[in-house]
Design brief:
Radius of gyration: 20 Å
Distance between the termini: 37 Å
Strand order of the largest sheet: 1-6-3-4
Order of helices and strands: HEEEEHEEH
Shape: globular
CATH superfamily: TonB
Strand content: 25-35%
Number of strands: 6
CATH architecture: 2-Layer Sandwich
CATH class: Alpha Beta
Largest sheet: 4 strands, mixed
Helix content: 25-40%
Length: 152
């Protein structure tokens, strides 16, 4: 009987560990997100009417988890260049996103990723110099050492 109880406890522990591992999100770089999830709705972010650097060309990197149902959670501003009051707008945008699983993501696996949001960026339709300027802006917010947070 003791042997049976030990085996049962071992199996239960293994199943609990497997369930926990299955819920742990995959770390996905922004370039690969479309293999897992596609934006289905964006919501309506709140924007301040006055504040610091609201009209300056700005980029914001925001990390977040996409859960099995397509909602975002664990939204965190990672970087904003230059500092200013667009940080709240960036996190509001990501909080309001909703996703649909991509065809390859049959199990609706949760992911942890980030997005770079450019604000007041040059219009790329105005030519190569504007496109290069926008790229320089966005490059300032790339997260070279992006990884899963502790405990996730």
């Amino acid at each position: 009987m003791k042997q049976f109880v030990r085996v049962l406890l071992s199996v239960s522990a293994l199943m609990w560990g497997a369930a926990q591992a299955a819920e742990r999100p995959h770390l996905v770089q922004p370039d690969n997100l479309s293999k897992y999830w596609l934006v289905s709705s964006t919501g309506d972010p709140m924007a301040p009417s006055y504040g610091k650097n609201l009209t300056a060309p700005t980029c914001a990197a925001v990390s977040y988890e996409i859960e099995r149902g397509g909602a975002t959670s664990h939204v965190k501003l990672e970087k904003i260049v230059p500092e200013g009051d667009l940080a709240g707008v960036a996190t509001s945008i990501v909080t309001n996103l909703h996703y649909t699983a991509a065809a390859q993501n049959i199990g609706k696996d949760p992911v942890y990723t980030y997005v770079i949001l450019p604000f007041n960026a040059p219009n790329v339709a105005k030519g190569p110099s504007a496109a290069a300027e926008k790229q320089r802006l966005v490059d300032q917010c790339k997260l070279a050492d992006f990884k899963l947070p502790e405990g996730m």
